[in-house]
Amino acid sequence: MIQFKRLDHILISIPEGKTAQARTFYSQVLGLREIPGEHPKGAIWFQIADIELHLREEEVGPYSSRHPAFEVIDLESARQEFMQNDVTLEYSSEIDGRQRFFIRDPFGNRMEFLQYDSSQK
User: Fold this and answer.
1) Which numeric CATH code is attached to 4-116?
2) How far apart are alpha carbons 60 and 106 in whole angstroms?
3) Averaged pLDDT for residues 85-97
4) What is the pTM of this model?
5) Does residue 97 come out as left (phi exceeding 0), alpha (psi in the -120 to 50 range) or beta?
6) Domain extents in the chain
7) In what order do the strands lie in the sheet with 110-116?
């Protein structure tokens, strides 16, 4: 059984070419603190209480990259659980201090599962 720890982040899509407008809205209008750094695929990250909000430009297509990300106690156990249930795992760019993979539910919704390296949290 997968042991969930918490919701880590949510990634939402913004139209292509709108990162600057999104940065202004989320930082100035909503007052969120941007998390600096070079994030995967040009994303911008913001802190909301104890979770992160990730924004990334995305072309409209049949499968979106939008997803919630769940921190789990044991990522390897979660991986084994999905494999035993014939759920396909997807991998993406690496993020320092985090191990992760993605799945899609039977309806095409993307979900990320991650575990922080012990030195990170």
Assistant:
1) 3.10.180.10
2) 20
3) 89
4) 0.74
5) left
6) 4-116
7) 33-35, 44-48, 51-57, 4-14, 67-72, 110-116, 98-104
